Automatic annotation (TrEMBL):
It comes from Phanerochaete carnosa (strain HHB-10118-sp). Transmembrane segments: none annotated. This is Cytochrome P450. Keywords: Heme, Iron, Membrane, Metal-binding, Monooxygenase, Oxidoreductase, Transmembrane, Transmembrane helix. It is found in: Membrane.
Length: 470
């Protein structure tokens, strides 16, 4: 494979033969069906634009990973990128010096050696989730959201006081994230299909107003972080950006959006992954029991799991990796743009094409994940019970656009999985069965509320939890 293929000598990957193919809603599902029809990689056209969709594991490695240098760019996004985000959201910034600058700033606070430092704070907030569930099990999805919001607000803005799901700034963040999710999908807005409409005020006025509101919130949160630091509060990612703003050559809007992107990318995804973990445990009691057996043998009943136990609890890690596969939060993946021709077998993905790694289909590749609809954490373990090194999760994206915050996110999933399954038996309510496909159709899906029954496994659970927090 190479990126210098003469495209005229090779055809595009097979796909629907239409000058303008419109797959409709629930794109990841539609694309998965087309993968079954056309093969691991298929293509279609929308006018002059070529879209190639990768739907199998090995093809994702061959194309998305090995040719990451040619897929670091993003296709032009008028609605979500230029209008809604003011061309400031790092997720949609194109390849080049500016992207490297922004990712370097994020990497300074999210690289593995730094992510370890957040673990004590994550453990405290995850332990609070146990108390939240004991107090109010019905709203367990909201408790997961509170956890994720607390972690990100602490890391990003130095807000150490309790953060609640109902806090005004959190509610606004969630609203803006939902707005973004609604316009970032392929051709979800008319201006992306017909760019000339970008200059028609009544077509774009809502997007411009949304940008104004979002930038205002992000800027006010940075101001709050600055004020906390002056009052003796802790440093944070936002105050780091303020201190290094000139050296990093960041505008005020870039500082605001870079910090704000931590919430949108980190809180939203982690909260829903934790909710999917609870859903998986409730609907797959055998897998839940296997995790609990290992946790009991290592931890016992008199103390809480900690990060120090991680190496002894491979089934906990396998459980959340299977959650990532079973219900990927970014289930359709984000679009890349090829900056050079990429040869795949006897086909070419031409420079300029939009390339999508369809996470839903890749995670259901039967050659790599036999019986893909079955929830089976043991598929991530080898015969000796250790985590396999020959398969990977693409939950955080591909190549040079992989999510910088993946280490913090994995820590969140490990600690919440270990604690919740140590503390509770989780079951379905027979009167209100769980819809395991109950999630929204968005760039980052949201789990719809569902009923789960939590039964404490630990005698005097509240006392044990509170004694460990003292």
């Amino acid at each position: 494979m190479n990126g210098k293929t003469r495209r005229l000598l090779l055809p595009l990957p097979p796909g629907p033969n239409a000058r303008w193919f419109s797959p409709g809603g629930r794109l990841p599902f539609k694309f998965a069906q087309l993968t079954e029809t056309y093969g691991p990689v298929f293509s279609f056209k929308q006018g002059t634009r070529i879209v190639c969709v990768v739907g199998r594991y090995q093809a994702a490695i061959d194309i998305m990973q090995k040719h990451g240098a040619y897929l670091a760019d993003r296709p032009r996004s008028i609605a979500a990128g230029e209008l809604f985000s003011g061309d400031k959201r790092i997720l949609l910034v194109g390849a080049g010096d500016r992207l490297r600058k922004l990712r370097k700033a994020l990497h300074s606070h999210l690289q593995p050696s730094i992510a370890v430092k957040y673990r004590p704070m994550q453990a405290i907030h995850a332990t609070n989730v146990l108390l939240d569930i004991l107090r109010d099990p019905e709203h367990h999805v909201d408790h997961a959201r509170r956890y994720a919001a607390s972690v990100v607000m602490d890391m990003t803005y130095g807000k150490t006081e309790p953060t609640y799901y109902t806090d005004p700034e959190v509610q606004k963040m969630i609203t803006y994230a939902a707005r973004f999710g609604s316009v970032v999908r392929l051709d979800s807005h008319i201006v992306d299909r017909f760019p000339i409409f970008k200059h028609v005020p009544f077509v774009t006025s809502t997007l411009r107003q949304w940008h104004k509101e979002e930038l205002g919130l992000f800027s006010s949160l940075v101001d709050g972080a600055r004020a906390r630091l002056k009052d003796g509060g802790p440093p944070s990612f936002a105050t780091y950006l303020i201190d290094q703003q000139q050296e990093l050559d960041l505008s005020d809007a870039e500082v605001a959006y870079l910090a704000g992107s931590m919430f949108g990318a980190g809180s939203d995804t982690s909260a829903n992954a934790i909710a999917f973990m609870i859903m998986a445990a409730a609907t797959h009691p055998k897998a839940q029991a296997e995790v609990q057996a290992q946790v009991d043998s290592v931890i016992g009943r008199d103390r809480l799991p900690t990060f120090d136990d991680e190496g002894l609890l491979p089934f906990v890690t396998a459980f959340y990796l299977e959650v990532y596969r079973w219900r990927p939060v970014t289930y359709g993946g984000f679009a890349h743009r090829a900056t050079a021709d990429i040869r795949w077998g006897n086909y070419v993905i031409p420079a300029g094409a939009t390339v999508i790694g369809n996470q839903w289909a890749i995670a259901r590749d039967p050659d790599v994940f036999p019986d893909p609809e079955e929830f089976r954490p043991s598929r991530w373990l080898d015969e000796s019970g250790r985590l396999r090194e020959d398969i990977s999760s693409f939950n955080f994206g591909f190549g040079r656009r992989v999510c910088v915050g993946q280490h913090v996110a994995n820590n969140s999933l490990f600690m919440n999985t270990a604690l919740i399954l140590w503390a509770f038996d989780i079951k379905e309510d027979s009167a209100q069965p769980i819809d395991t496909m109950g999630f929204t159709d968005a760039a980052n899906v949201h789990v719809r509320p569902f009923k789960a029954v939590f039964t404490p496994r630990i005698p005097r659970l509240r006392e044990v939890v509170e004694s460990c927090m003292d």
